[in-house]
Known about the structure:
Elements: E1 3-7, E2 10-13, E3 18-25, E4 33-39, E5 46-51, E6 58-60, E7 68-73, E8 78-83, E9 92-99, H1 102-107, E10 114-115, E11 119-124
Parallel strand pairs: 2-11
Antiparallel strand pairs: 1-3, 3-8, 4-5, 4-9, 5-6, 7-8, 9-10, 9-11
Amino acid sequence: QVHLVESGGGTVQAGGSLTLSCVFSGGTFRDYAMGWSRQAPGKEREFVAQVSWSGMSQYYADSVKGRFTISRDNADNTVHLQMNNLKPEDTAVYYCGADPSASKIRVTPGQVDHWGQGTQVSVSS
């Protein structure tokens, strides 16, 4: 089945930048919309960003719009999340997701077919 492995998490100070990467395997990458969700301690999983099969369309949660950029490389079966101007409230475990339905990623991330194990992002003030 589809397998996703995230990397790139770490600890940064507020205002800093970080890039997350996700490697896709076990399926046909181009059949899936890809995205990122996050979950902070004590909070529900929330949508962060999503990119279409072609990579031409991207969607972002209002909380990260203008600061985060999602992209995909169909040649390498990878998806990236470039995070700039990080804020303490961005602290969470970030998960890479894959689903044939792009809308599920941004509307109901809890129902997405496949999520990776996550990578921790911590932002200090």
